[in-house]
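seq/struct pair 1
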Amino acid sequence: MPAREAGEVFGPRMTLFADVLSVGLATSVACLPLLTAPAALSTACAVLRGAREGRPATAGRYFALLRRRLRTGDLAAGTLALAGALVLAADLALARAGLPGGAALAVVAAGIGVCAMVAGLRACARPESLTDWRTALRLAARDCVRDLGGSGLVLLAVATAALCAWMLVPLAFLAPGPLALALTAVDIRRQDVEFIP
């Protein structure tokens, strides 16, 4: 990042922080229909990845990119994510209902849910998610196995976003920005590790 220029109040890092928060707020608005959540998060990751390449990371650029990319595949990804969340919630409710083996079912369901969430979030961070969700999910699942450290970082990012939203509810509307930044950083980290001889 370039140094702060004379007379500049905030440096480039503070500008990036403000851009991340504005993209987070835009992502929250775009996630409200629920079915658009994967596309909204994927677009946020793409916009923040562009900041590394010198493109502006603004809410205007975010909405322009989101408008161009919303298609049937994005809505199918949202439907799949929503259906998975509902199935997990139903499984956990059944496990708490006192069924025999309910505790084991809850542990297995929670484990599968966490793995699916990490793979889905890593898919959102991949550039392929802009055009082909199947490829993005396949490569993200491979990354989850090959890069356990990155998967751990994704879990920490989700836990941090959830904790911030729990502590101060208005932060829930800004949390997707830092979460998208963390997901993008994990994906870039993965690329950098792959290129080290």
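seq/struct pair 2
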Amino acid sequence: MTIRSLGVRRAALLASSAAMVCLSAGCGSGDDTASAPRTESGTTSPSDGTSSAPSGVPTDAVSNSLTPSAPQSPAGGTRCHTSELSASVGRNNPGAGQENFPVVLTNESSRTCTLYGYPGTAFVDASGKQLGPDPKRSSAEPETVKLAPGQSAWAGLSFANPEVSGAGTATPAALVVTPPDEEDPLKVAWKSGEVPVSGNESSVRLIPFSPGTGA
């Protein structure tokens, strides 16, 4: 073998060795387009339909901070159901031209349950037709009222005395009371005379539930 042949073979072996070293060390060409795709931290999979969130922050925490949700009972899972309650209307406590009645719900069940917010109320005639406009709720902050078996909570119902306000009146047969977050109502016979049903002073107002009977 000639000296020239030995030189060519040696150069080929050196080139092959250099290529092997480059492969094992991950030599780059300066072009990143051939790299594997990178998954950005916090990116949500398109299949779940939710928006992405910064790394380490739950997606629902971000959405809740941007979109206020409607107020809900903080103890919704333990709320009192209509079938567990009885309803009554307490004695009138008039004052300053106002008639003020406590609407009372009592826990008749064997478990402790909760009420939060306002009752649904409506005066109705003997046929069940509503008399007057829907009641207006006060701006008072509701509280969760825990009712052990046999305990009661009351919500205030008030309206201007029709003899003072001059509003049109009717005498209801009953007051229909629906517990908070329930659909089935309770009916209480109304024995307190005329109520305003028309005119500028016909509004009935409600305050949220508090512990006790309001007596």
